[in-house]
Amino acid sequence: MTRPSPFGHPFLLGFDEIEQALDRVSKAANDGYPPYNIERVGRTDSEPERLRITLAVAGFTRDQLDVMLEENQLVVRGRQIDDKSRQFLHRGIAARQFQRAFLLADGMEVLGADLSNGLLSIDLARPEPERVIRKIAIAAKDV
User: Fold this and answer.
1) What is the pLDDT of residues 77-112, one digit of tens each?
2) What is the predicted pLDDT for the residue at 49?
3) How far apart are the first and last CA of the chain?
4) For the chain, where are the E strands, in sequence order?
5) Positions of the chain with pLDDT lower than 70, given as ranges
6) Which of helix, strand or coil describes residue 53?
7) What's the pLDDT at 65?
8) For residues 90 and 28, is the Cβ–Cβ distance under 8 A?
């Protein structure tokens, strides 16, 4: 059974990329690790409005984390290697890998990433939309 597309309306033209992005996001794994926040950082006189993604990555070093921009996806990967020389009596903190992807709108700019106290923060700039008004000339064609 196929579901009807929300972009199937005849007045919505050229939105097939958005539909594909929504399908990709809905099929992504719903793993809750690592937990994350997304916050809006208000604009100032010197900086535009920004978004900040903060992931809880306790136990990961900077060398074990990768932040990549792959086309319009921000991908954060963490890789910990299990230390075989350590003998645990109880193991409640597992060495694990993760990948978390965020789909970015066109024009979003990644400003940078910072790791502090087990929190990885990634700042994004939201582009100021330009209002475009253009008059379209109507050609006269006599048949």
Assistant:
1) 999 888 788 888 998 877 789 999 998 988 889 999
2) 83
3) 47
4) 36-41, 50-56, 65-70, 73-78, 98-103, 109-116, 119-125
5) 1-9, 21-31, 143
6) strand
7) 97
8) no
Residue (of 104, 103, 99, 124) closest to 114 by Cα position: 124
- Among 63, 50, 44, 62, smallest CA distance to 104 is for 50
φ and ψ of 53, to 5 deg: -100, 125
In angstroms, the CA 72 to CA 30 distance is 20
By CB atoms closer than 10 A (0-12, 13-18, 19+), residue 41 is: middle
Radius of gyration of the chain (CA): 22
CA atoms within 13 A on the CB side of 122: 24
How far apart (Å, rounded) are the C-alpha atoms in residues 72 and 97?
Answer: 23
Note if the pTM is more than 0.90. no
pLDDT, position 53? 97
